[in-house]
Design goal:
Rossmann fold; Protein-Tyrosine Phosphatase, Chain A; 6-stranded mixed β-sheet; 15 helices
């Protein structure tokens, strides 16, 4: 079967394309601005790809199925050729659901925060236990070479086949505005939390809850949902769910209760109880209660899929975090430099708390880049001012692509600095004018030279390039 990927150089699209090539499909693709490392990854997998789009070229290749990337819209010459000539087409999520998941057990890890970590942990536990899962995960999860893999052919669509998905609530494609996770038809669904995000496609938290409920409605009665008992929005969303619901949390209302036995800079130990019955004690070499909850969800999902509690205990104790999740990337002037993906107020707060647990004797300096479609707007103006508690200083990068919004609708970084000052947190904001300079990270260095001292921790929080600051600090 010949698959052609329009938009093949996206992180997820490229990972899926490589997994398809490894699974025996004939794969081609096209994109604009294809550069390393993705260009090298595609070539190493034997995939023929083109830099630039050409509808006539695509028609000449005569693919059996065209996979249309989320970033592709009407007017793209290859997409128009597909539509004009009625070639078979699908989205990336649609392809995964039909060709990789199909009748395998589907574990879908969802939530505003923690999707990548939880899905990585879940895939790792299954792999460690010898279950050889397929998976689709953002980034490269611990223990694997890529972010996507098909279930091995010899166990595909059997009782042993398990596929783990990072269940993204973002929309699917230009022609399908449902959230991606609907295509994955979960047998076992994890809902870590539900908060407002993705302001470019959702207008309110109600819209997001509605999208989650579309997924909740298709979980079979023979499956189940593991839901954060400490998140009232998530708990409310699953009321009336057709499948069994297990509420997982630290509070007394949880049906599966987490009891922390030890927190240290080396990680956490906790016990699980289901309605008063012990499920065991577990150890994770990561800090932060949010990571402990992620690990708990992964353990429970894997046990539901047939892994023993002992197998899960051994696997989670050996787990290491994926890239850009509390990742130590180097040192700068005797300070530890940590990289993390946090770009939402709740995630920022959790990351700061985790770093305080991991480095209790160190002061923490945070560099935050407002880059997502939500944090670049004024929507979280007050929430951002409240989420940096515990930081010794904060540097706020320029709002990414500020021209998209009016001054009134854009995050006011000057006001954010003033609000942090009211909390006695020294802060600096870089002008939105600096956003177009790919090396604006150099502007942060004088601030760090003024505030950081030996033994401190510098945390870079962003889902983007941060003006090349990572390479500047670790050169």
């Amino acid at each position: 079967m010949h698959l052609h990927f329009i938009g093949i150089a996206g992180t997820a699209m490229g990972s899926v394309a490589v997994a398809c090539a490894e699974a025996g499909y004939h794969v081609t693709g096209s994109d604009e601005g294809v550069y390393p490392p993705m260009s090298d990854v595609l070539s190493a997998a034997g995939i023929r790809w083109h830099n630039g789009f050409d509808g006539d070229r695509l028609l000449g290749m005569a693919p059996d199925l065209v996979v249309v990337g989320n970033a592709i819209s009407r007017g793209n010459t290859e997409l128009e050729a597909v539509l004009d000539h009625r070639l078979p087409m699908t989205s990336m999520a649609g392809f995964i659901g039909t060709h990789f998941i199909d009748r395998n057990t589907s574990i879908v890890c969802t939530g505003t925060h923690g999707k990548t970590t939880t899905s990585s942990m879940t895939a790792w536990i299954l792999e460690h236990a010898g279950r050889r899962p397929g998976f689709l995960i953002g980034g490269v999860p611990y223990g694997f070479r890529s972010g996507c893999r098909a279930v091995p052919a010899e166990i595909n669509n059997t009782h042993a086949g398990v596929f783990v998905s990072e269940g993204d609530e973002y929309d699917t494609a230009f022609f399908d505005k449902r959230s991606k996770f609907v295509h994955y038809r979960p047998t076992i669904a994890i809902i870590n939390n539900i908060e407002f995000d993705h302001a470019d496609i959702f207008d309110s938290i109600d819209d997001i809850v509605w999208s989650f409920q579309q997924m909740i409605r298709i979980v079979p009665r023979t499956g189940c949902l593991f839901v954060n008992a400490d998140d009232p929005v998530a708990v409310d969303a699953v009321k009336g769910a057709p499948a069994p619901v297990h509420l997982v949390g630290f509070g007394p209302e949880a049906t599966i209760q987490i009891t922390v036995e030890e927190r240290s800079s080396e990680g956490s130990t906790w016990a699980l109880q289901r309605e008063g019955e012990p499920l065991g004690t577990f150890r994770l070499s990561m800090t932060g209660d949010h990571n402990l909850r992620n690990a708990t969800m992964a353990v429970l999902a894997c046990v539901e899929a047939g892994v023993t509690a002992d197998e899960a205990r051994l696997a989670i104790a050996a787990y290491q975090p994926p890239k850009r999740r509390l990742e130590v990337i180097g040192t700068w002037q005797s300070c530890t430099v940590v990289d993390d993906f946090a770009h939402h107020p709740t995630a920022i707060r959790a990351t700061i708390q985790a770093l305080a647990q991991q480095y209790p004797q160190s002061r923490l300096h945070v560099i935050f880049e407002p880059r997502s479609n939500t944090t670049t707007r004024a929507f979280f103006q007050h929430e951002l001012a409240a989420c940096f508690a515990g930081a010794a200083s904060v540097c706020v990068g320029p709002v990414n692509r500020p021209e998209r919004y009016s001054v009134e609708d854009r995050l006011n970084t000057t006001q954010l600095v003033a609000d942090l000052g009211q909390q006695a947190i020294p802060a600096l904001s870089l002008s939105p004018d600096r956003a177009t300079d790919p090396s604006w990270g150099a502007d942060v260095v004088p601030w760090l030279e003024q505030h950081a001292r030996e033994g401190d921790v510098i945390a870079i929080l962003s889902n983007g390039n941060v003006g090349s600051l990572r390479s500047i600090l670790t050169a």
